[in-house]
Predict the structure.
Amino acid sequence: MKKYLVLAVMFSVALVACEKSSDDDSNDPQKIGIVGEWYSSGTNVAPLLAYLGIDSIYAKFNKDNTYLVESFKDGAKTTLTGTYVQAKSGVGNIWNITLNQTSPSSITSQGIFEIDATKNPYTMNYEVAQTEPQIQGVTPPTAQGGFGSTSGGAYGTTNVQKYIKIVR
């Protein structure tokens, strides 16, 4: 009987030790990509957006592939919402992203992002360009071209946004 009791305890310990926590990988950017809340302000705002007067941006990418972006200019807030699709590009740690904005207007943008998980909190480089309706001469950045590849590099890094992950 003692042997069975010891065996049962060992089996129970083995099950508990092997059980995967529901929180495992929930913050690993190599697994979840852009999911989470992000903030950009000051010199982190892409120079192209800063030139347009935008001084800060809050972005929330949900697990259900919806997003909300709030940009601030002279104290006024603009809210953008829609859905997104992300996929690993196969080039380093760069991911591809397609955003289908539904409000305040219907726009599709494509681009890339890369999260640096060695920093605490995480930081992200993010570059997208509007593809629908198409803007003449503008093409989205590519993982192969890297950051600064919007329109084949014509914009340099002026379209590269830097974000810091909000940790709650």
